[in-house]
Design goal:
homodimer, Aldehyde Ferredoxin Oxidoreductase,  A, domain 1, Aldehyde Ferredoxin Oxidoreductase Protein, subunit A, domain 2, six-stranded mixed beta sheet
């Protein structure tokens, strides 16, 4: 990948430049974070011209490496005020890689109210007005664009939430059937795209082929090993393909760590009705698909297709995080309602985690009752319409808590916490507290060694060893997020060292390098240091590396535990 | 002043304790900040039980010292997230001082939805339910309380905004006619009081007398000198008594520093219609009063009484900041409308500065048109009702900017900037940026030496010398805010060193001390250090000591200047 496209929205110009030395050899999160740190003003308003939106495929994206289709989207986050990388599946990353594009850097800001689309193909990249897409949901946006550009291209787009610059707005990426179901959800990347006046990117890779491999034979061998290991591992080879990510619902509920009704309990009485098992049964009964790849070359195929009661396509197989945020956290046990919410979130372009947690806070304020699924659907429409209530909710849990005077607001660095209560899985609490990304499970998934006993075996209720495990996972994840590989390969990598070797071998073979495992670890550290430094300049300090106090004072049933990893230990996470 | 009342709202108990050694010798801001820093958890949610609300009269309050009736209200601020001291006039401070009360410390949190009032008199202090006051504005609250407690007591109360825990909610203090027109406005102290479930404090000082003076003769001499100096100074003896604070409208507009239409211009074409001169003429023509003391012993008497067109009391003489925030900043030149807004803010219990600046941001988003006075009055009612729109606006400019995706948001540490554009008065820009309080002019009023040529003579358009002047003023102000003296005495103090001597002499005579000018300066430094340290623990760092970027990039007409005091210089303000 040799090129960077700079899209200057102020001037309406696109320039193609060779990848500068400083950014060479980077991909995915490594590249987005490096560019954001080097080029965006840390103290800028995230919706202003001094912020930059960077979109980058990973180092292995576009190759034959299994599960390598992730697309990283980075910027200063309007939700957290810090640096952000959020990544998604879908087909666009692979297409960008085939076009030789390392990154799209969206700069400046179009005149207020103007909307553009960016078309990229082998002949170059071009901006054109997108007034015809104004206010459209992601589904209609893609449908309209498909009329013009066809089905064989990838679409990256924002919905009304992004156009309204809401802090919970996502960037949608289409799957192989051109459904906008894969989202760079977290941290309001859609709002940054919206602030620039960019509604959609059309990625047409026709006429391209796979990136040239420096050592094809070595690559093939490593790729084969990697794929084999993924197939063999019980999580990536069986759990996820069979039940999708929502396989976790029963597991986490059983562990007493399934945050229920705005993080007030650790078990939800309705879990059985929304579990991965029930989800699979429902999908099969209605003729949906329990397996589906969100991009070509995916072995895990966790995404699936969810049909409504009449047997018509409604949305993807809803993810664990979505089911939790809009299920247990809201006291809702209605799978169809949750699937409808998912469809609406995808369409309006909203982060399902932030939105569920936000509505949990609103329910605590009495805006709706816990358990009121129809009420939640109403609320999502309010967000999509941009009503005043919608303006509150669409800007996330911290704003909603402030608006309604609620003090139990489950956020770190103003980003809502995901589906594992940090009191009952202390390792993930360490990641939530200290991640450069704000409350985020994917930044260092300590749930694996705490609960799943993958990559270690820690007592989830004890603070012992949690800082070290979170540190190591955060470093490894920063690297993994740079490869373009789906994070789920980590389940396999954590258990099988050969899988990590295979990844390093693929990178080496692809680029003609001779990286070692240590080099790869060093890359992860470097990325984290870059992100931390940006955050420091943006104003984050030790006090931001903390969970909200109520996790330290309110006991979580059924284990009746609080979060008790000492602050001083949290402050050592980045001692490397 | 020998006593502290601890009001535990969780348990519904009040205890009276002797002032502990650590707090002895402190008053006003010095005392509130010291207690908040020592007892409130810096990382707590401001609306939670770990925050404390501290109410304290100043060191000279209750004595015969002129203009010594200020009441300090402190807590961790729900608006800024940092420490806050906001002070107000009115009669309650003097009554508390006469009761020997150094501070009221409100702790814990009543059960959600429960509302109490606190009655303090010579027999002690008692909490009782205040359900009868639920949802009442400050005017009705005081009227209802007056039926029971009479007219000779002081009332400290919150309106619906405080009950709804809005970040722009103020704490109202009654004037000598028991009108709730004096407000500890900034930083949401009303929300903290509301979060605790405390609706009102009734301060009955009947049966008390002035605090005992250690050296009555020395006190009388110093007090006489001080009063004389205040009468002689052109600002405190003439400008303020004649025109009120709004004497500044023409002056600041002339200087091109009068922020207009959300800080987009430095001069407002309608200034003449809302100036201090026009205000005085209007007041006189309608039989209002151009002079009025907000507490006994006030020599300056800037407050005044504003009548409506029918000659009936409407509100106090509207303050400069209020007229600006709801006039020029909104493109409104209708004095009656602004006076109505002031009345509504006082009644709902809202900070007039935060609210005006917030509505400026909302107007930039198109919620109402600039200049639409009737629209603003509608918006204020929305806040009072707690509608969804009101929930946005009542939580200030930062939340409103985020809700509507506006990036030109004039806040520092999430608190709205007051009525002097920092690009055209660079010294006040330094104070805005670096004050422990967030965007605040009273924390170090560099407007005096920049524009009024009081206490120095600096070029307001040059960055030269601004850090030093702001530093010195911030130190002096921290001391002054501890004495209970009205900040306006500073105009005199800055020009006449004898006035400062008189203040020190009064304190010495009152308490039998032998403080020097240096001791007094040291006190100011100590207070600032305490506040900075709290803020550091709460998460503030150098990046928070900055103006929003648009002040550095957008040129302000008519001088076409940007804010150009270098960041490195800003970082030296607290080098003392």
């Amino acid at each position: 990948m040799d090129w960077i496209y700079r899209v200057n929205m102020t001037e309406g110009k696109v320039t193609k430049e060779e990848i500068p030395e400083a950014y060479a050899g980077l991909g995915g999160r490594g590249l987005t974070s490096t560019i954001v740190a080097a080029e965006a003003l840390p103290t800028c308003h995230p919706l202003d011209e001094n912020n930059k939106l960077v979109i980058a495929p990973g180092l292995l994206t576009g190759t034959a490496a299994a599960n390598s289709g992730r697309l990283s989207v980075g910027a200063k986050s309007p939700l957290t005020g810090g640096i952000k990388e959020s990544n998604a599946g879908g087909t666009s990353a692979q297409k960008l890689a085939r076009l030789g594009i390392a990154a799209i850097v969206v700069e400046g800001k179009a005149e207020n109210g103007k909307l553009f689309k960016l078309k990229i193909d082998t002949s170059g990249a071009e901006l054109s007005p997108a007034d015809e897409l104004k206010g459209l949901g992601n589904y209609d946006t893609v449908a309209k664009l498909t009329e013009k550009y066809g089905e064989k291209v990838g679409y990256i787009s924002i919905g009304p939430a992004g156009e309204m610059k809401m802090s919970a707005a996502s960037v949608a990426v289409t799957d192989p059937e051109n459904r906008p179901t894969r989202h760079a959800g977290r941290g309001g990347m859609g709002a940054v795209m919206g602030s620039k006046g960019l509604k959609a990117i059309i990625v047409d890779d026709s006429g391209t082929s796979r990136p040239v491999v420096k050592d094809p034979e070595a690559f093939r061998a490593a790729a084969r090993t990697f794929a084999q290991l993924l197939r063999e591992h019980p999580v990536t080879g069986e759990g996820l393909p069979t039940y999708g990510t929502n396989v976790l619902a029963n597991v986490i509920n059983e562990a007493g760590a399934y945050p229920t009704r705005n993080f007030s309990e650790g078990q939800f009485e309705g879990t059985d009705k929304i579990s991965g098992e029930t989800l699979r049964d429902t999908i099969i009964a209605r003729g949906g698909s329990p397996k589906h790849a969100c991009h070509p070359g995916c072995i895990i195929q966790c995404s699936g297709i969810y049909h409504d009661e009449d047997g018509n396509y409604l949305t993807k197989r809803v993810e664990y995080e979505t089911v939790w945020a809009n299920g247990a956290d809201l006291g809702i046990d209605d799978l169809d309602a949750i699937a409808q919410m998912d469809r609406l979130y995808d369409d309006y372009g909203l982060d399902t985690i932030e939105m569920g947690a936000t509505i949990g806070v609103a329910m605590e304020a009495g805006v709706k009752e816990f358990g009121d699924a129809a009420g939640v659907i109403e609320l999502i429409h309010e967000v999509g319409k941009g009503s005043y209530l919608g303006r509150i909710l669409g800007n996330g849990a911290a704003v909603t808590g402030q608006a309604f005077g609620v003090s139990r607001v489950p956020v770190v660095k103003r980003q809502a916490l995901p589906a594992y209560d940090p009191r009952a899985v202390k390792g993930i609490g360490v990641t939530y507290a200290t991640s450069t990304m704000g409350g985020d499970h994917t930044a260092g998934y300590s749930v694996a060694p705490n609960i799943l006993k993958v990559g270690g075996d820690l007592d989830p209720l004890s603070p012992e060893g949690q800082v070290e495990i979170s540190r190591n996972l955060q470093i490894a994840t920063a690297t993994l997020d740079s490869t373009g590989l789906c994070l789920f390969v980590a389940f396999c990598v954590l258990d099988r060292p050969e899988a990590m070797d295979a990844i390093v071998n693929m990178i080496n073979a692809q680029y003609g390098l001779s990286l070692t495992g240590d080099d790869v670890t060093e890359l992860g550290k470097k990325i984290l240091r870059t992100e931390r430094e940006f955050n420091r300049k943006a104003g984050f300090s030790a006090a931001d590396d903390r969970l909200p106090d109520f996790f330290k004072t309110e006991k979580l049933p059924p284990h009746n535990v609080v979060f008790d990893v000492p602050d001083e230990e949290l402050d050592t996470v980045f001692n490397f």
